[in-house]
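Appendix B. Raw example, untouched.
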Amino acid sequence: MKRSRDNSEAYTWGDHCSGWHLVKSDGLSVIEELMLPDTKEVRHYHSHAQQFFYILKGVATFVINDETLTVSEREGIHIRPKTLHQILNQGKGNLEFLVISQPTTSGDRTDLEQQSLTTL
């Protein structure tokens, strides 16, 4: 089946950000996400899932552990399990990207506020 925003399960997250489940299974998750300007994700990590973020539109700022990186359109970044990370849209326009997770991140997320870094 062809997938798009129009025929995929939609959800909202964070501060008025949007997502669409293009593939949703235990072994693989592919989500298209939209972040408005001046929004950010909570710093977190996944115990089992690895993720690949691919930027479709805009420029993403990532905080990976204690390093800040900029990822532009048509670039991606691989996040390994147990890696503390956060994505921010510090631009003036919308940020659109794909996030591919293997396995799914459902039930596999720990926000920084919930656990000390020394236990990672």
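End of appendix B.
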